[in-house]
Specification:
The protein has about 525 residues and is of the alpha/beta class. Helix content is about 35%, strand content about 25%. The protein is globular and about 75 Å long.
């Protein structure tokens, strides 16, 4: 059964229950209302000529309803990142997927100071255009049996594409990931079993739905379980989000370490008393964040692992099976193997190598990029591009992106490991990111980019020397007011690396100039 069909079942079974507490509009929307509006939108979206329809709307009932309407109309939503470079991302998506129509919001464009581009259609105008001749048939249809409603909307194979998402672009150009209904459903079936989720849970949806973590954990998971969702469009409003968690007695939150760090700092004791499950993914969860939540809120953050290409979950720690520091055991019906970085030989337990995964959650492929798809998927196995190991008890230990390993003097150095060690000795209010810069003799040097804060670099370097080989110790520290981030909450490594390399070049130029003098 396709995702929008699952929603119809849920909406009929929980008709009077609040589906979304939409904080942006101040409205509480029941499941029966969601069903009626999605049917109205489906009728309007059927008139769009292209197979793909862009969707650039912040996390809200409006975004969720537009997504449902697009699918019910037999179209495929293309989720567009509005957080960074919205204009460029819109044009890129239109060209990559060969479509023109982008459903968006006037309020969003005003907020991000973006001029409309050709093909944009505004939700505000769509709402104004809804007449009684739209409302009455949708209302009547919503009262029919589940079987009758399903016949009236698009129905097809579970192998059809359910959404196009773009990779973060934190390391290179974004790729258009095709996730099918079956891909996402794999997460929807497996995760509730191991996490003991049910319709009584209250989710907070604060992640952007253009990111796979958001669209699965903040949207499809709760809306097909019959849960209530507290939708708030800005995860960076840390104090407000903490207040919403307390006000609505939220039981489940999904977030990135950088967001959890903000919530830790801005929350008051008691804000997270209702929270049953807090899941962290998309980046490395530091000890200071984990320990901070445990001490302040008696809340254990559960580390998870996934990728855009796997819908996203690969593994997750659970309340009953949690090995701190690991990213948990594979979710049901996921296979994992570790291969040698050079020979592709399968490695035994506790050996670090490339992580490959297999299961129904693995994407259909990259749209319009058969070459890259074939490089990443072979005989059903998806090469995550990550390094890690599986221990004797089946827990996965993530060691970082392969691209975040660098050769220094012939040795492979994990930049993630350097970050972990550096974080141990930095004050709590200081965060860091470690990258590399070219070195003509050693191949590369490790450098650290950190946020502003009073630090004694000599003292820190001395402490780090006890944990790392000399070649892994950062050669330079660059201070930034803020570490560049992606809209999804991940560090923008491309931008950090670019800034550090520019500073490094400038230093070398100045040094050469002084030497000449």
């Amino acid at each position: 059964m396709q995702l929008h069909q699952k929603f119809v079942e849920t909406a009929k079974n929980f008709s009077k229950k609040i589906s979304v507490h939409d904080i942006a509009t101040g409205k509480d929307i029941a499941y029966e209302r969601m069903l009626i509006v999605s049917l109205i939108l489906a009728k309007k979206f059927k008139k769009i000529n292209s197979k793909y329809v862009g969707l650039m709307v912040p996390t809200s009932a409006g975004c969720m309803l537009a997504n449902l309407g697009i699918l019910m109309a037999g179209k495929i939503p293309v989720m567009i990142n509005y957080a960074t470079g919205a204009t460029e991302n819109s044009v890129y998506a239109q060209e990559k997927c060969s479509f023109q129509t982008i459903i968006t919001s006037k309020k969003l464009l005003e907020k991000i100071k973006m001029d409309p581009i050709e093909g944009m259609v505004f939700l505000e105008d769509i709402v104004k255009s809804v007449s009684l001749t739209d409302k009455i048939p949708a209302l009547i249809r919503s009262k029919l049996s589940i079987k009758s409603i399903l016949k009236s909307i698009h129905h097809g194979s579970d192998d059809e594409t359910a959404v196009i998402l773009f990779t973060s672009g934190s390391e290179k150009e974004p790729k258009a990931v095709q996730l099918t209904h079956k891909n996402i459903e794999h997460n929807l079936v497996g995760i509730p079993k191991i996490m003991s989720l049910g319709s009584d849970d209250v989710f907070i949806a604060n992640l952007p739905l253009f990111h796979v973590f958001g669209i699965t954990a903040n949207y499809w998971l709760p809306i097909t379980l019959g849960c209530s969702i507290v939708a708030y469009p800005n995860p960076l409003d840390y104090k407000i989000v903490c207040g919403l968690v307390k006000q609505y007695k939220v039981t489940l939150m999904a977030g990135t370490p950088s967001f959890y760090y903000g919530y830790l700092k801005k929350s008051a004791k008691g804000d997270f008393d209702s929270m049953r499950i807090a899941i962290s993914g998309a980046d490395t969860l530091t000890n200071q964040i984990f320990d901070g939540f445990l001490k302040k809120h008696d809340l254990t953050i559960l580390n998870a692992y996934g990728t855009t290409e796997t819908s996203p979950a690969i593994s997750i720690n659970t309340p009953t099976e949690n090995r701190v520091g690991s990213v948990g055991k594979p979710i049901p019906n996921v296979e994992v193997k570790i291969l040698h970085i050079d020979t592709d030989e399968e490695l035994p337990v506790n050996s670090v190598g490339k992580i490959l995964v297999k299961g129904d959650m693995v994407m259909k492929g990259y749209l319009g990029d058969l070459e890259e798809t074939s490089l990443r998927i072979h005989k059903g196995w998806y090469d995550t591009g990550d390094m890690g190991l599986v221990d004797e008890d089946g827990y996965i230990w993530h060691k970082g992106r392969l691209k975040r390993f660098v050769k220094v003097g012939g040795e492979m150095i994990s930049l993630v490991k350097v970050e972990e060690v550096l974080n141990k000795y930095l004050p709590d209010e200081v965060i860091c990111c470690v990258v590399d810069v070219p070195n003509p003799t050693k191949g590369a040097d490790v450098v650290a980019a950190i946020t502003t804060g009073a630090i004694d670099t000599k003292k820190i370097l001395k402490k780090m020397a006890g944990d790392l080989p000399a070649i892994a110790i950062p050669r330079e520290f660059h201070i930034f007011e803020n570490i560049p981030m992606m809209g999804s909450g991940k560090v923008n490594f491309r931008e950090v690396e670019r800034l550090c390399r520019e500073i490094h070049k400038e230093k070398n130029r100045n040094k050469k100039y002084k030497d000449k003098l």
